[in-house]
Amino acid sequence: MQQDPDVIARTAEELVGDLNPQQGEAVQYQGPALLIGAGAGSGKTRVLTRRIAWILSQFGAWPSQILAITFTNKAAAEMRERLATLIGPVAQRMWVSTFHSACVRILRRDGQSIGLKSGFSIYDSADSERLIKIIATEFNLDVKRYTPRSILGKISDLKNNLTGWQEYLAAHAPDFTPGQRGYQFGHAGDLEAIHAVLYAEYEHRLGLANAVDFDDLIGRTVELLRKDPQVADYYHHRFRYILVDEYQDTNHAQYVLVRELAGVDARESADATPGGNGRFAGKTGPAWITVVGDSDQSIYAFRGADIRNIQDFEQDFPNAKTIMLEQNYRSTQTILDAANAVITNNEGRKPKKLWTAMGKGEPIVGYAADNAQQEAAWVAGEIARLHAEEGIAYSDMAIMYRANAQSRSLEEALINGGEPYQLVGGTKFYERREVKDALAYLQALVNPDDDVNLRRILNVPKRGLGDRAEGILLNYAREHGASFFYALMHVDEIQDMPTRTANQLRAFRDLMASLSQFTRAHDAKPSEVVAEVLDKSGLRADLEKSVDPQDASRLENLSQLQSTAAEFEQKTPDATLAGFLETTALVADSDQLPDEGEDSGKVTLMTLHTAKGLEYPVVFLTGMEQGTFPHSRAMEDISELSEERRLAYVGITRAKRRLYVTRAAVRSQWGQASDMMPSQFLDEIPDELVDWKRREAGVERMRGAWGRDEFDDDFGGWDDDFSSGTTFGGSGSSYGSSYGSGSRYGSSYGSGSSSYGSGSRYGGSSRSGSGSYGGSSYGSGSSGRSYGSGSGSRSYGSSGSRYGSGSGSSYGSGRSGSGSSHGGTRGGKVTTRRVAPKSGGSSAQPVSSLDKDNQLNIADFSIGDKVTHDKFGLGTVVDLQDKGRNSVITVDFGSAGTKRLMLRVAPIEKL
DNA sequence: CATGATTAATTCGCT
DNA sequence: ATTAATCATG
User: CA dihedral in degrees (A327, A652, A616, A611; nearest 10)?
Assistant: First the structure.
């Protein structure tokens, strides 16, 4: 067999010459099943891409014979890109894709044989939930007790385990037939019967709507491969090498899918000979499988990932080989020691120890704050310090947390500090209401059977068609055993309808009919269809006439949807509307992550889950408290706790050079403040690795003191010190040393200058706000896309940058030229709420340029000046430190003491 | 049918 | 605290 001339031939030396022995072995291994146990930062993507190149150039495989599977589109794109540099543009034609998009391709091609019509809809979880809710309501179920979400969760579990509805129904509610109306449950509490009935009915409706949900993409592909030998045979011959990334995250269905695709269990074709060697390696019999993963980084069990897939790999696949990669190229030994120490506490795990040739590096820095706000302020201060003093680019720093809700205080602190940040996660672009509305129109046009989407838009924008009208159509559809769309098209035949409703319905029918016609005529131009829909439906007009400032950004999101469609149209030769909808259905959060190496000039905020696979020179792990992390719901159960620990392991190993761990003694959630114990994971990090800047929070010292009746005054409100800048001041400050010994979190009260501590017992919540955050400037999209290219951009990267990026990212200020600028360090701030889904540059969310700056400039002060402070009163300036926007002045307030104040935020006035 | 008021929920989230 | 969803009312 001849090699594809398009593939750039690579010599063995080029492919493995610069790898370590284990990596090299993994790249070259010949055999039917290979598990690469890739510890964090061990160069797994590199090995995977090299192995693919090796298979092409050394085994003589054709690009079309390879299937490489990842979990995210971003990972797929990245792998494809790295492959392209290795083997050339032919990589663009290869199947390098996610599980889901590979399945879509298969189902689009061969789905007819299991009853899927082309143009089927892909429901996201919101669509699925809506459908479940519709069904549950019809069955008169108490939606409060049986939430659509929990029902869907159960259905998802069943699907992930490939339990079909037929099977489950037979076991728990054999007297129900899908499509049957007026079914009564035997007795109210039979959860399994309810699940069985809803599962069956849900599948029935999906079928009627010619739709599949995410889990179905996998499950139905498995079904297809099992039921249709011809199709199975086709893929068995087609894919000779299957490679799966992040194997520890696969669920049972995905595991079976891989087996079916590879033909591991299939009867071998007649000409099968045992997997040979040399140039014909892997060319007969089942496809050769390579999986890469790290069981210590399995953090998606809660969503069905089955860690046994990777643990039992050697038993599952005959003649399997395991190669472990334990040399880490990312982090310092200190960081790895911490990670190893933590993960060792998990039971039943294969011992594995990461090591590095990089050296010890700096100690981990710890900090115990009084509350979440102060924790955030300290982190923001430390980031400002690292940036100003050590020249570390903002984009080289990341703040991680367990739950999205924790981002709030961090965002506020960064806004206060004028530090640019971007938040990854939260609501996805394609799940935003207005975007979903527009997409629902498109979906309904492409797939008229899609009742869920059509019903969604019936009254969007408001056109006086409510539950009544919907019910009438629904009835008609049922009577005729037809779709909702069919009913709509036949409104004229429906009797006994209020004239008003009839008129509105006819108008809507005409709208859909005309849009439908337009769609057929312009199917190859999705962007034009989008424009037509936005225009004719009134979606755009509705938002345009609105005065709600939020709607401005919604409008912008719609226009971005149109741009995305245009972009899709340009880069896709045979573009169709259905094709475009597919791309929108399968994008996820992680696709929004900034590309590696790209200097966005912003600090990145994200959850630990989102952080998997990423790395940053400086990482802050915040909220290290029992109940926060590990999460309260996971603390009881040993397996859930183990997963939390793996999450901690993932978090720690994201850091390349410096790791910070912080916690808050008091955290308020759901409006209620509660005392938080330090996370057990902190205890699991060896003490000598951590340099505690503050081991115990002020309130904790007080708690101890109260207990012993020893506390006395001298507790200023924490905000006093906060503004005075102690938190970001030079190293050490006043804590640390006094807590260095003794019990780790014991009460070492009474020692040290206790300028911390809150006056009120739970000072946190009351003092949090200063209200500048919420309504006003945050959501108002008017200033829109000014950032990134706006006027008055300033360069923030200081010289001598330690971690490269000497370019010093510049970013625009929404507020051009405000305030006098000395040394070019005063400028607007940029807060990107989310990163745009794909198209370069702009974000889907508006940007705020609010500036809490007090307009004071270091240049205007000199020693001896008199100032007044909101709390301390009159004082005299005794020292000035020009650190640009983080300038500090030291003021003697007489009886109130001498304070160091961060000029930018201090509540002072020059006299 | 739309609007303001009340109530309930509320980890993480690849596709 | 926040927000989404539901409920009562104009």
Answer: 110
Same domain, yes or no: A31 and A48: yes
Across A383-397, A519-533, A784-798, A878-892, least confident range: A784-798
A705 contacts: CB under 8 Å, gap ≥ 6: A711, A747, A749, A750
Task: Judge if pTM exceeds 0.85.
Answer: no
Whole-number Å distance between alpha carbons of A892 and A587: 57
Tell me, yes or no, whether A463 lies in a domain.
yes
Tell me how far apart the alpha carbons of residues A504 and A414 are, in angstroms, rounded to a whole number. Answer: 50
Q: Is A878 helix (H, G, I), strand (E, B) or coil?
A: strand
* CB-CB neighbours of A207 under 10 Å: 16
Structural domain contains residue A356: no
Q: Is there a contact between A578 and A568 (Cβ–Cβ < 8 Å)? A: no
Q: Has residue A349 been placed in a domain? A: no
Evaluate whether A396 touches A616 at the Cβ level (below 8 Å): yes
Rounded to whole angstroms, the Cα distance separating A261 from A253 reads 12
Tell me how far apart the alpha carbons of residues A847 and A837 are, in angstroms, rounded to a whole number. 15
Find out whether A744 and A695 touch, Cβ atoms under 8 Å: yes
How deeply is A59 buried, as exposed, middle or buried, from its count of CB atoms within 10 A (0-12, 13-18, 19+)? buried
Per-residue pLDDT tens over the stretch A720-736:
333 333 333 333 333 33
What is the nearest nucleotide to A144, using C1' and CA?
Answer: B8
Query: What distance in Å separates the CA atoms of residue A599 and residue A801, rounded to the nearest whole number?
Result: 13
- A677: amino acid identity, one letter: M
Segment A772-825, tens digit of pLDDT: 222 222 222 222 222 222 222 222 222 222 222 222 222 222 222 222 222 222
CA dihedral A206, A207, A209, A215 (to 10 degrees): 40
If we measure between CA atoms, which residue out of A168, A146, A148, A143 comes closest to residue A158? A168
Q: Are residues A109 and A141 in the same domain?
A: no
Residue A519 annotated as catalytic: no
Residue A877 CA to residue A564 CA, distance in Å, equals: 55
Residue A158 in any domain: the answer is: yes
Residue A610: CB less than 7 A from any atom in strand B: yes
With a cut of 90, say whether residue A521 has pLDDT above it: yes
pLDDT confidence tier of residue A869, bands split at 50, 70 and 90:
low
Q: Helix, strand, or coil here: A420?
A: coil
Calpha distance A217→A214 (Å, rounded):
5
Residue A429 one-letter amino acid: F
User: Considering only residues 84-143 of protein chain A, which place a Cβ less than 7 A from any atom of strand B?
Assistant: 98-101, 124-125
How would residue A103 be classed by pLDDT, with cut points 50, 70 and 90? Answer: very high
Q: Write down the pLDDT at residue A902.
A: 57
- 3-class state of residue A766 by DSSP: helix
Confidence of residue A714 (pLDDT cuts 50, 70, 90): very low
Q: Give the domain extent around A790.
A: 364-426+602-849
Q: How high is the mean pLDDT of chain A?
A: 77
> In this structure, is the CB of residue A278 within 7 Å of any atom belonging to strand C?
no
Q: How far apart are the first and last CA of chain A?
A: 87
Q: Name the domain count of chain A.
A: 5
DSSP string, A466-480: -HHHHHHHHHHHHHT
Amino acid at residue number A483: S
The DSSP code for A331 is: S
* Dihedral (CA of A304, A309, A311, A315) sign: positive
Does the annotation list A44 as a binding residue? yes
Question: Taking 70 as the threshold, does the pLDDT of residue A347 lie above it?
Answer: yes
How far apart are alpha carbons A383 and A727 in whole angstroms? 11
Q: Tell me which of A50-59, A397-406, A720-729, A778-787 is least confident.
A: A778-787
Q: Is A263 found in the same domain as A170?
A: no
A40 marked among binding-site residues: yes
The gap between A51 CA and C5 C1' (Å) is: 51
Does the C-beta of A184 come within 7 A of strand B?
A: no
